[in-house]
Write a structure and sequence with these properties.
This protein is an alpha+beta fold. The chain has helices at residues 3-18, 22-38, 40-47, 53-64, 70-82, 88-108, 120-136, 141-160, 162-168, 175-186, 192-204, 210-228, 240-254, 285-301; strands at 229-234, 259-264, 272-276, 279-282. The protein has a four-stranded mixed β-sheet with strand order 2-1-3-4.
C-alpha cells in the first residue's frame, strides 16, 4: 500500500473515532473487501488500468452510496485514485487490517504510537495523505487560509525557541507527552485542523527537521487553497444559475467545495477559461479557432 494512503487512513480513523463511527468504518471496509474478493466482475473493473481513475472511483462511490459512512467512501475513493489499479485489492486488505488494529487499540485504551520509521520521502508521503484528508474536511476556503497562517506562525515560533523545538523533536520522549505540549500551547488558540497536522507531523517521524516539515505543510495548505478557488475568465458576467452549475461541476471534479471568482476579460472571445489549482479548462471560442487554424495549417503544409 502506498504511504500516502496510510496517512489518509490515519486522518480518517481520527475523524471516525471522534464521531463514534470507528466500528462502522471497520465493518464497511471488511464488507467492501469481501465483495471485492467474491465479485469477479467488480474486481476486474477496478484492477483494469485501461479504465480511467474517474470511472473506477465512480463505481466505488455508487457501490457505497447510502450503504457506508462518509469516512469509508472518502477513504476508498482516495485509495482508487492514489493506488495502482492492480494493487488495489492488496491495499484494501491492508486497510482492513489497520482498521482492525486501531479498533483493538481504542478498545484497550492504549495510546497512539509513532508511525514505523522510514526515509524522509516516505514520511512526507504519509503526511501528504494525512494533510489531504484533514484539509479536505474543512468547509470553506477561509478556514484553509487560517490553517496556513497558523502553521507558518508555529514554524516561526519553533525556529526561534530552541528549547521548545528540541522538546518536540526529542524522539526519546513519549509521543503522548509531546502531543500534550502541542495541545497545551496551541489547542485553544488554533484551529483543530492545525493542531491535528502538528500532532501528526510529530507522529510520522523524521523529527530532525521538524520546522522544515511544518513549513512544507504551509505549502500544502496553499496548494489546497488553490484547489478550492476557481478563477473564471469570461467576457460577460455569469448568470447566477450558470455560476451555481459551474461551482457544482467543479466541486465534483476536485472533490472540494469550490469558490468561483469571476474575472471579466474582454479578450475572451465567447465561452470561459477556468483555472482551479493546476487544472485548466479552456472552453473559449479562441481555443476552438486556434485549433481550427492549426488543423488548416497542417493540411496546407501537407
Amino acid at each position: 500500500m502506498r504511504e500516502v494512503i496510510r496517512g489518509y487512513l490515519a486522518a480518517v480513523i481520527e475523524s471516525a473515532e471522534s464521531a463514534g463511527r470507528l466500528d462502522s468504518l471497520r465493518g464497511d471496509l471488511a464488507e467492501f473487501a469481501r465483495v471485492l474478493t467474491t465479485s469477479e466482475k467488480l474486481r476486474l473493473v477496478l484492477v483494469d488500468p485501461m479504465n480511467s481513475t474517474t470511472a473506477r472511483r465512480a463505481v466505488v462511490e455508487d457501490l457505497l452510496a447510502g450503504k457506508s459512512i462518509p469516512e469509508t467512501a472518502a477513504l476508498l475513493s482516495f485509495a482508487v485514485r492514489a493506488e495502482h489499479a492492480s494493487e488495489l485489492p492488496r491495499s484494501v486488505a491492508i486497510l482492513v487490517e489497520l482498521a482492525e488494529d486501531e479498533c483493538r487499540r481504542c478498545e484497550s485504551g492504549a495510546p497512539v504510537e509513532m508511525e514505523p520509521a522510514a526515509a524522509r520521502g516516505v514520511v512526507r508521503e504519509r503526511i501528504r495523505g494525512y494533510a489531504e484528508r484533514v484539509l479536505q474536511e474543512l468547509l470553506v476556503t477561509r478556514q484553509v487560509d487560517e490553517v496556513e497562517d497558523e502553521l507558518f506562525a508555529i514554524a516561526r515560533l519553533l525556529d526561534t525557541n530552541g528549547t521548545l523545538r528540541r522538546t518536540l523533536a526529542d524522539a526519546d520522549l513519549p509521543l503522548a507527552g509531546r502531543v500534550a505540549v502541542v495541545d497545551d500551547l496551541f489547542g485553544s488558540v488554533c484551529q483543530t485542523a492545525t493542531v491535528r497536522l502538528v500532532r501528526y507531523a510529530l507522529r510520522a517521524g523524521r523529527l530532525r527537521d521538524f520546522v522544515g516539515t511544518l513549513e512544507w505543510l504551509v505549502e500544502l495548505a496553499a496548494e489546497e487553497r488553490g484547489r478550492r478557488i476557481a478563477s473564471v475568465r469570461s467576457a460577460v458576467p455569469l448568470r447566477p444559475a450558470e455560476r451555481s452549475h459551474l461551482a457544482a461541476a467543479l466541486s465534483r471534479i476536485v472533490e472540494r467545495d469550490v469558490e468561483v471568482r469571476e474575472i471579466i476579460d474582454p479578450t475572451v472571445i465567447g465561452g470561459i477559461l477556468v483555472t482551479v489549482g493546476d487544472l485548466v479548462i479552456d472552453g473559449t471560442v479562441r481555443l476552438r479557432v486556434e485549433r481550427l487554424r492549426d488543423l488548416l495549417t497542417g493540411r496546407a503544409e501537407d
